[in-house]
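Case study.
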Amino acid sequence: MSTHRTEWHAEPEELAAYLAGEASPPLAASVEAHLVGCERCRAAIAVVGGSSAEAERDASWSRLADLIDRPSPTLLSRLTRGHWYARSVVATPTMLQATLVAVLLVGVVPLVVAATAGDAGLVALLVVAPLAPVAAVALAYRDRTDPVGETSLATPAAGLRLVALRSLLVSAVAMPAALVVLGAVDLWIQDVPVHLALAWCLPGLALAAVVLLAGTTRIDPLHVAVAAGAGWALLVGTAVTVRRALRPEVFVDLIAHPSVQGAALTIALGAVLLTVARRDALAYRRLG
Amino acid sequence: MTTTTTDTITLDGLTKRYGGTRAVDGVSLGAGRGVIGLLGPNGAGKTTLLRMVATVLAPDAGDLRLLGLDPSRSTERLEIRLRLGYLPQTPGLYPGFTPYDLVDYVAVLKEHTDRAWRQREVRRVLDAVDLRHVMHRRIRQLSGGTRQRLALAAALVGAPDLLVLDEPANGLDPDQRLRLRSVLSQAQTVLMSTHNTSEVTALCQRVYVMLAGAITFCGTPAELAGLAAGRVWEDDRQDPQAMRSWLTAAGTYRHLGDPPAGAQVVDPTLDDGYLLLARREHR
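After joint prediction, the assembly is written out as follows.
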């Protein structure tokens, strides 16, 4: 703390009022600004506070400096105050990035493509949209996701509950975003059949559930997520090649077909049930 | 290594492998109330052992009992985690939080749902490590030693019956180390790893030495120092016959090994006992 010469000094009664929180706002602001540069008044405020001991003075000044230096809460902090699980998601860079990446995957990219290349945008949406929940689950498993790192693993909350909650919170932002984008495309660019708009949801859920299940094994969920994403892209690529047409109807035929949707639902339910059954392996890890 | 049913920590043949390497190799120990020190060089397996005791990592083989409970059973593991505080080697605290936010978050993870209770508890543990005056600053503004104390505060939430601390004195200045001793002396059972033998001397009722994944010594700090009794001598020149020689602050050489005839044998310290043990195992 720098010290500079000043002519005015706070009176003891002004310091006492400031310490008690009873000073008027202009006086409090003046005293606060003055204390930053005046060592004499910092010493005086410690005396007014009840002790002239040097240690007590330092402690008083530290408390005061904390009051002055206290950061303003961010918008996210205000929105999530009191909702700690939500805060652990939005406040940490990894989870915030996961949310942004997921929204970008399902929203902006296909929108841009749709605006420039018509049907190709909808195809792109169907290719990338199921990957959003996959990315959400894979990132929810990363150690760096938690604000307290490894400490969280030794708490009762560690395990499936925390991972599932984080995955759901990211997906809860990304999936509605995808539907909003589709609505916008339908309204302003081209018609989007409802069954086409919803066709990707169950395959996305199935892929994400498989990644969730991987967390209960010795296999790295991130590797499974990459493999699942690549597999999905290969499936769609093969369909395009075979049908020789890059049109949404191709994917309606393929992805929205009841047998494909039924298989996706079965895989999703099976993987979730297996994960719940094996949740102990997630809460008490075999890997280092 | 004998254990009793009243021990807070009981390990029997605990083993952890990474690939072909046994990081922890059949470790057995029993520890009751008090501060227990775990000494050993880097790579000896201390952190892996502490992670298993903290229930972060499951052992590949062996039996582990904490507070009389079995962590491999999910309901018992939950109870252990409610009564456990853990300070990892690399706490990795998110720099965007304030100390208050961070400790409050840990209290939530420990399932303390009463907000008024949490407010009191967060202030209590921040007071204990002398951080209350910075509790509303961003963690990125704090020094390394302050962050270490903050991680310790997070471990103290809920006054746990068992504290597992991986090198808690890392980055602390002498004054902060004294405060750490004061905090730990009030805890029920503490298992801590350290490189610092002065912490062991000052704090620990028992000390274990871990080398190459195995426990090679168990006893009091005085007993560890006693291993080097009659095997430490000092003179003003280096001795090539000594197992280890080093220059002291007084300008004389301190030697460890078999003293030559007429050597000026001195009282051993904990460092001497530990170095002798590590050297013997290394051969």
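Observations recorded in class. The first helix of chain A runs from residue 12 to 19. The radius of gyration of chain A is 28 Å. We will return to this complex in the next lecture.
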